Amino acid sequence: MNSVLYCLKNLSENSKLRKMDKFIQHGGTSCLKHTVAVAYYSIKVAELLGIRYKKRDLIRGALLHDYFLYDWHDGARGRNIHGFTHPDTALRNADRDFTLTDTERDIIKKHMFPLTIKPPVCREGWIVCMVDKYCSLYETFKRKNAYCRVYTKASDKYTELFDEIQMI
Question: 162, exposed or middle or buried, with CB in 10 Å at 0-12, 13-18, 19+?
């Protein structure tokens, strides 16, 4: 996990990305682990299916798709519709902290389709949208240590992702 945090820190010195590790996303999985898993599996799906895609945009969009920076389980006002509203919050936060491409914006804003009405317009957005659903279900039903096998073999499983993140 330390290697993941180190790589993610390289995205921006002014980033609040590491803060995502404090918030639970689904089951026992933090928002940070969730977004790393979505980025990793999005690349794998795109490669497996032979889809042409912008790798940098896909990784950054996937890592920032849940950059809402709050605990959505805390019962605060408006959190009961988190699934509908957090893409806009994540995009606002990401726009504030990073320089985003149109593809990255599309990934972040539309990853919750069909809960959010407008579907993604780019391939990368569709990939992240689908992989996010899969990872969310996996984390919800696995509950604890959803990616423990993947993280214990980080040097084998995440090498490509680490390399890509470090180049961003």
Answer: buried
Other CB atoms within 10 Å distance of the CB of residue 160 = 13
Q: What is the pTM of this model?
A: 0.81
pLDDT single digits (tens) 5-54: 444 555 655 677 778 878 888 777 888 888 988 988 898 899 999 999 99
Q: What CATH number belongs to 18-162?
A: 1.10.3210
Strands (E), the chain: 24-26, 29-30
> What is the distance between the alpha carbons of residues 127 and 62, in angstroms, rounded to a whole number?
9
Residues 145/37/48/10 CA torsion (nearest 10 deg): -140
**CA atoms of 89 and 146, how far apart (whole Å):** 26
